[in-house]
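Need the bound structure for manganese (II) ion, inputs here:
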Amino acid sequence: MQFSLIIPTLNEASNINPLLNSLFALDCLGDQFEVIIVDDGSTDGTPEKVKSWEATHNVRLIERHAEPDLTASILEGVAAARHPVIAVMDADLSHPSDRLAALVQPIVDGSHDVVVGSRYIPGGGTENWPFYREWLSRAGGLLARAICDVNDATSGFFAFRRALATHIPNNARGYKILLELLMAGQGQLRVKEIPICFRDRTRGTSKLSFSHNLIFLQRLIALAGGTVSIRTASRFAVVGFLGVFVDVLIYQWMISQGSGLALAHISSFIAAATFNYTLNSKWSFRLHHPGHLRWSQFIRFLTVGLFALLLRGGVLAWLVYGWGVGSEWAIFPAIIAAAGVNYLGSAFYVFPKADPPVPLHIRWRTAAIGIVGFVILLRLVYMGVAQLIPDEAYYWQYTQHMDLSFFDHPPMVAWLIWLGTTLAGQNEFGVRIGAFVCGLVAMGYLYALACNLYDKSTGMRSVLLLAVLPFGFATGLAMTPDAPLIAAWVATLYYMERTLLAGQTGRAWIGMGIAFGLGILSKYTLGLLGIAALIFALLDPLARRWLSRPHPYLAALLALVLFSPVIIWNMENNWASFLFQTDRIGGPQPVFSTHKLILYIAIVLTPVGLAAALLALRTLVSDPSQASRKRLFIGVFTGVPLLFFIAVSTFDAPRFHWNSPLWLALIPTMAWMLGQNNTHPKVAHALRAAWQPTLILLLLAYAFVLHYVALGIPGLPYRFLSEHYFWKETTAEVEKIALDIEHQTGQSPIIVGMSKWSIASALAFYQRSDPPLEIRSRNLFGVPAAMYDFWHPSATPSTRPILMIGMKRRTLELDQADGNIGHMLQEPTEIGARTIYRQDGVPLRTLYYRTASGYLGHTAATPVTPSQE
Ligand code: GDD
Ligand code: MN
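Answer from helper R.:
Posting the output first, comments after.
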């Protein structure tokens, strides 16, 4: 075979003879290859050893005298090579020379451009490597895989067409020339990986040092589109350090003057950020961006600053409110978190690398990693500080009455909350941790699904969309049945694609059974995927064959077994939840609501998302460049649930979030289109342009809302929807009123939440009284109230005082739309109102209440009509 083998050396004297002996002993290579040894000024006699081979064998020595560098050495070897096929290997016998023929062959026969000897594919491996080296290598490989799709992009054993070397940028340095080669190919290369076993050297020492790792990291960031050098990073650190002083001084001063946490940390942040930006743009990043301040750049800077600020508020609140850390100490970790966001934002977004341009799909990957990371951090930080919304409190209330299932929902949400609060305590974090984990699971399965349907770049963009689109962001944070539903829905889709489209047997079917079973334990809508699967199997001849095999039936059986708790509960409770669900759909008079459905879709997806979804559906119908089975799969799994919701909307009003999961099947296509910058019409182009601001604005909105509810925003009072929120402080006030009543009457009152289930649940979660308050819901007055009908069925008369709690004044009127409650109360008082304040004196909301000296019992005379919460 004709090829040039390049072997870089630095003090490898003891390895030269064994290496060259083994190479020239190989029959399979023939004698047409040349060996070029590039030595970087070894002092142990390596060059002399090599020279002794030059006379008798096709071996050449190149001696460099510049600063030693592996990449530069290899490039010099390439320049001197006689053959158009190049192979590179280490001198220390780590690489198996008997794999050389397999390495070179695909280049010689023209079928591939690059062949990699890979440790990290089946059949490959490492031997005798110390644990930390293995770990380091794997960590580096993982980072590299974010931007490069080769399993072992840091391998030192590879072959390529010589012409490719001209694309390697001049500033490439260090050990990872293969990564440079692959990235310079911009995804156009035909790459093959062959398994090799890497053996640690037995003679001499490794030259890989800590600084090589730093260089690797730096090159990786540059290849991903960031500006990072030791110089900018250290300057940034110096500026940041000075900024901390500005920040902390102003913060501490304001706290000492009695201002609230939010005002203090926001003011000091703005001062420090102005200070930092001035120094960073004039000094730290100046080399990379000479010239004066540009507005677009300044706006980007402000955006990054805002993200950092809103995140740091969460860290602060978490430490101060959640852990009781003094606010004077909590500011330091908060500053560190903000600095991390600021630095990465500066390097990748404010001052990105301009030259050479980074390809679009790599930019999207970097954006996806950054944004998804930020979303996860944001959830983690705020999850435990933001108070529960009433819905979450209601599902928590389920866990106080644990059961196999519940009247208005299947049990998964309750089981997850039970698990979370058992592990992490009866607090917001414990309630929400299940939703957080479900969010991660959904991301993982969506990534895998999109990789299978399209490619890795699309996979990463899909996760980005899921993380930022309203329904995706919310379900990974708020603990409602939709959290496990979304996760199970994607998982089911993933397994259905594996079985029905990719034709996998065995494990994938088991996975499908489990995902489906857990899915209907979360919410019954998941059943729509079963119908979609059946329709797909009927339409697709390849998938149809499964119908005559046992797999689908066994998977269905598995799902049924998982679902059995719901069936058992219903058998014991007169099929209550099934009746409730069918009731819900077939309301008394049909109301046409399709326009509402469209509005709701625009809410869960945003209008830009809705437009993207429509466009994606159109491509599925008409784009022949995508495989037709794949298009059918996505079309059916989106179309069937969509048509179902449209059909229902013609006679019944949907809740706004019901349609959410159906978009999961379409997100990969939407994400795929996001990265296509050719051949598509103007609309598609405009849409791609609209995505960037949409994603940023959404993310800012989430961070803003979380900061607002947890710490407040100075100058912005609480008004919007706040009567539904802040139950922690409100409950404390209710407990005070209850105590007053007890002092006056000698009896503790029965508390009645005057809503279907919101108020009673929120009060139950936040009450701290000992013994606990006795809390009822509005069903005391004969109005249906979901699970409260089971927990506290209509009560008998009582002489204990009654304390009714309302979010709005009108819910306490004696004569209500549902009927008159006045005659069920003994001596009702007038409606009282109290303003609820936060600890620091900020007004939060108003609490309405009314008392009575006794409850006369609920008279069935009042008409009972179901009412929506
Ligand atoms: N010319 C030249 N100049 N050669 C060098 C230099 C240099 O500055 N530094 C190292 N070498 C040579 C060594 O003499 C050896 O032949 C080869 O490059 C690999 O160096 P090692 O010091 O043995 O590296 P390693 O075993 O730690 O790293 C190997 O595995 C890494 C993957 O984890 C190499 O194959 C790396 O390329 C690979 O990334
Ligand atoms: Mn080595």
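Comments: The pocket of guanosine-5'-diphosphate-alpha-D-mannose (ligand 1) is lined by residues 8-10, 12, 38, 40, 68-70, 73, 90-92, 94, 137, 154, 156, 175, 201, 206-208 (CB under 6 Å). Residues 230-358 form one domain.
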